[in-house]
Amino acid sequence: MEETPILKVEGLKTYFPVGGGLFGKKQVVKAVNDVSFEVMEHETFGLVGESGCGKSTLGRTLVKIYEPTEGKIEFMGKDITKLSGSEMQDFRRNVQMIFQDPYASLNPRMTVSDIIGEGLDIHKIYKGEARQKRIFELLDLV
Predict the structure, then answer these.
(1) Which of 48, 69, 72, 115 has the fewest Cβ atoms nearer than 10 Å?
(2) pLDDT of residue 1
């Protein structure tokens, strides 16, 4: 039986227009250029590369902070590049990004439990004892 990937990226491109001005030639920065990969359930996927090679731009494109210029992103069989507003909200409940800068991403005055619980609170997923139980389940997973 063939396993279906939970994340499938095909031919993903994220380009940004630069320069041009009134009389200048329009140019683009090809921040992500034709990236493809699959991530299976229970698999850990690592992405490495030099500073400035597009890793963060790829991550931001995968969670739709940036719109892809071209390509397909499937999460659990659904093409997220075509999601409506409410579908996008559901997607963001399941997929989130922690940015590189830990001081911008993680509040050092909050406990790990509070940081994990913050996402549950924002999406109004769990309350009371169920919330704390889910936090411990998530910590146990990692």
Answers:
(1) 48
(2) 61
